[in-house]
Amino acid sequence: MGLRPSSLLVLVLCLGQTVHMQNRVLPKPSIRSEPGPVIRRGQPVTIVCLGPAWAELFRLVDENVRKVLPDQTNVSQRGLHWAQATFHIKAVSGDTAGSYRCLYNKGPSWSDPSEILELKVTEEDVSTLFSGPVSQTAPSSQNYTVGNYVCMGLAGVVLLILVGILAEAAHSRHRWPHRPQEWTQLSSCQRN
Question: C-alpha distances in angstroms, 42 versus 34, 45, 126?
Answer without folding.
Answer: 15, 10, 12
